[in-house]
Amino acid sequence: MSEAPLVELFDVDMVFAGGVQALAGVSLRLARGEIVGLVGESGSGKTTLCRVAMGLENASRGLVRFDGRPLQDILAREPLALRRRAQMLQQDAVASLSPRLRVRSLVEEPLAIHALDKVEGRRRIAELFSRLGLSAEVADKFPHQVSGGQARRIAIARALALRPELVVADEPTAGLDVSVQGDLLNLLLDLHAEFALTYLIVSHNLAVVRRITARTIVMYLGQIVESAPTLALFERPAHPYAAALVSTHPTLDPRKRRARIVLKGEIPSVVNPPSGCRFHTRCPHAEARCRAEMPALRTLSDAREVRCHFPLAV
């Protein structure tokens, strides 16, 4: 894995109409070849972060770089090149596919948009269909005629047709049977190795995150509150919010079972977030400093990053 990051965000804010601050001071680095998980409650800013990282939304403040270059420069000069290099897998695979096109045409469409050589395009399509187990029968169907697992594979084929470097997957296994989920995760891992992909995996399913990612980012109310190796996060979370999330993840090892942490109160409004630490209104460990002073994202002795005055793991 190269040390040079593929994606970098520096102190990024994202404010929508009405004063909705979806992101507040977000900084992160995605190294080439990484598989990174992104978790947090609904409304924590996960989807907005992904859209900003891919250039689908313009940050209100801060800098975004892709492969060392400012993202806005790439979008201004060669937007199609960025679209080839960064692709997204939507949560609802069927809804993301045009109902008017057959499967084969859906996978071929990106190649036509980017004016790829037709011979090379046909070779890629044949290779992808074979690799993803999409038969000629499936290729001739419309999206509403295929199963949920097949729809996911079609969406993957469409995304990989352009040979991207970054793939953002939003809830890749949502709505699938457990056995189908396992097959899909194995497929994503195989494709990661085969095509040297960088993954950003957004999921509420912590079992998926633990199974497939090497590093996990935890978001709360528009901020990153912890970034750590996935195994370390699940075994010893440092941020109280991360600890609450991890406590909902079941384990078969009785030595590693922990009591479930039930957070009290509602998630505060992003229009009027709490002063100081944004989590202090629900944190069982909050002290006076937490209510008055915003904690910085700092690096602990084990190299994980945490935004907390009194981290649980130091």
What do you see in this structure?
The chain has a domain at 238-314. The mean pLDDT is 92. The strands form two sheets. An eight-stranded mixed sheet has the order 6-7-8-3-9-10-12-11, sandwiched between helices. A four-stranded antiparallel sheet has the order 2-1-4-5. Strand 1 and strand 2 form a beta hairpin. With 314 residues, the chain is an alpha/beta fold. 34% of the residues lie in helices and 22% in strands. It contains twelve helices and twelve strands. The radius of gyration is 20 Å and the shape is globular. It has helices at 46-53, 71-77, 79-85, 103-113, 118-131, 136-139, 148-160, 178-195, 206-212, 230-235, 240-246, 288-292; strands at 5-16, 20-31, 35-39, 61-66, 69-70, 86-89, 166-170, 198-202, 215-220, 223-229, 297-299, 305-307. The longest helix has 18 residues, at 178-195. Helix 2 (71-77) crosses helix 3, helix 4 crosses helix 5 and helix 4 runs parallel beside helix 7.
Short structural summary:
With 314 residues, the chain is of the alpha/beta class.
List keywords for this structure.
314 residues; four-stranded antiparallel beta sheet; 12 helices; alpha/beta; 12 strands
